[in-house]
Amino acid sequence: MSNSAAATVKRFMELIQDRATLREGLSMVSADFVGTEPAGVPYGGEYRGDTAFLDLLRAVGKHVSMRVHDLNVHDLDETVSRTGIQRALAEITADMVHLSTGETYPLRALEIYSVRDGQICGLEVFYNDSKSAGEFMLN
Q: What is the spatial distance between Cα 42 and Cα 60, in angstroms, rounded to a whole number?
């Protein structure tokens, strides 16, 4: 199990939640990383490269902070693909806390991570309601 995509993603998510271990977590992002956020949020779009995940964290952090209540990560693939990629699904329940008002927005998200050789090389994010989440962030 320690070589599974889910184990890699869990470790990555643990590391990026703490400033003291953020750099170690970001070192798990591959140089060819491609991440996609939903179009309905202010930072929606595609992020590319080994600094892209930090760019994404900074973009989110301009609007909200996150309080994660529940996180479950599961392997999606039982075997490694011909490209060497395995995928994991992260199910997240969290509150977004608006930085200006302190108001909270309940968020449910699914994140599909692609992992190759122990590195995060892809991310696709899906919110339960990206349009409402985006409106919350902009108010």
A: 8
pLDDT in tens, 111-123: 999 999 999 999 9
Which backbone phi and psi does 60 adopt, to 5 degrees? -65, -45
Scanning the structure block, which residue is given the tokens 């692609």? 114
Residue keyed to tokens 């964290």: 57
What is the average pLDDT score of the chain? 93
Q: What confidence tens digit (pLDDT) does each residue in 79-93 have?
A: 777 888 999 999 999
Q: How far apart are CA 8 and CA 22, in angstroms?
A: 15
pTM: 0.91
Positive or negative CA dihedral for 117, 14, 70, 133? negative
Q: How buried is 44 (Cβ within 10 angstroms: 0-12 exposed, 13-18 middle, 19+ buried)?
A: middle
Tokens linked to 58: 């900074």
